[in-house]
Amino acid sequence: TGIRQLIIASGADASRLTATDIAFSLAPRINSAGRLGKPDRAVQLMLSSNSDECRELAEWLNEENTRRHACERDISRQAWAAIEHDPSIADEPVVIISGDGWNSGVIGIFAARLAERMGKPSIVLAIEGDIARGSCRGPEGFSFHRALCECADLLTVFGGHSQAAGFTIETDKIDLFRRRINDYAATVDIPVPQLMTDCELPVSYVNLTLASGLAPLEPFGTGNPSPLVTIRGAQLRDVRAVGGGGHQRLTLSDGRGQLTAMLFGVDTSSFRMKPGDTVDCVVTVGAKTFRGVTSVDAVVRDIRLSSTDCEDIIRGERLFERLRSEQPLERDEAEQLHPSRDDTAAVYRYIRASAGLDEPETICARLGTLSYAKVRTAIEVLRECGLVSTRIVGGRRLVSAVPSPIGCELERSPMMKRLISLKGE
């Protein structure tokens, strides 16, 4: 009775209930009761056989789920605004963000999203007067339990496991905790998150036949994730903004077939790929029926220009982070990071000509002549000289030219000075 009323309250179709409905409509409503402090109401819904009581409880859960979404949105908006205001937060090995009045039952949801977007261990703290409660999420291979053990003397209580943990700390110890856990993380080789795919197919093979073939593998979820398909060398034929510009509808082609796929959570201003680009992407594939017509339901999980060298980006980012945090560097490592005046000028010309927001990875791929390490350093030197600005938007580092720069000599940049010193010039 309770489940039936919850299905009705959620708006799902009871006659065609899918695993997706359960995972994204029913489960979050049950989960919201516990997150907002009243798990007994969800238990009562499961146990009751009284239709009127179940209807009332299901509607209450619906309202609580709406309230949970509102809490998530508020935390997300405030957190990303704080990171945009102070991008150095995102430069630390462990990203730590805190807020007054945040709901401690909801911060774990945003911590997971933050870790996924940043590709780094992430901690979200809900401050309640003199006490703060933290939720930790991180990539496989980085042990949050071990990291918290290194800071145990600062914590009131902590627990969890490798990739997810929680703790309580006195508010006046947060800054020291931030330094200590980042000092520890700097000594650890934090693995780069990887998206493991199940197969590689051309665009023309991603069709209803494939979607139908995958259907028997359902239900998909945590223990049985949706298969991921890699598509390489596809031509981006069209880009259309949807949802007020917050999402993109992409049309991909390989010359023999065409695929429409949704890219969620990337707004128009920060999506810098354009029709005609050759791209690699990872998609999930399903089928959807609307007004009696069944079509492929493809969702983009990741996308990049085909010319992107991921290994170069990983090596370059790690080198750059060591330079930025003033860790020891060998002379040959400094050489790999040091852009010449011509290199820096090429990066600046591209940024000015693009007349918008671009990621360092995209700039590197489009230039095609410089290593990522040198592009990343050149951007920072240009920023220190007041020629470009950088900001973090939704976990993506975006670069744009300053409209009327005053400018300065590149050699006066603190980062350039350090590189020159490391090289012994």
Quickly describe the structure:
The chain has 425 residues and is of the alpha+beta class.
Quick one: CATH superfamily of the largest domain?
A: Winged helix-like DNA-binding domain superfamily/Winged helix DNA-binding domain
CATH hierarchy, class of the largest domain: Mainly Alpha
N-C termini distance: 78 Å
Radius of gyration: 24 Å
Record field, number of beta strands: 13
Query: On the 0-100 scale, what is the average pLDDT?
Result: 91
| Beta-strand percent range | 15-25%
Low-confidence stretches: none
Mind sketching the topology for me?
Blueprint: H1 2-10, H2 19-35, H3 39-47, H4 51-85, E1 95-100, H5 107-118, E2 122-128, E3 131-137, H6 144-149, E4 155-160, E5 164-170, H7 174-186, E6 199-200, H8 208-214, E7 228-242, E8 247-253, E9 258-263, E10 278-290, E11 293-305, H9 310-324, H10 331-337, H11 341-354, H12 360-367, H13 372-384, E12 388-393, E13 396-401, H14 414-423
Parallel strand pairs: 1-2, 6-7, 9-11
Antiparallel strand pairs: 2-3, 3-5, 4-5, 7-8, 7-10, 8-9, 10-11, 12-13
Which key terms come to mind for this protein?
24% strand; 5-stranded mixed β-sheet; 41% helix; 14 helices; 4 domains; OB fold (Dihydrolipoamide Acetyltransferase, E2P); Diaminopimelate Epimerase, Chain A, domain 1; single chain; alpha+beta; globular; 425 residues
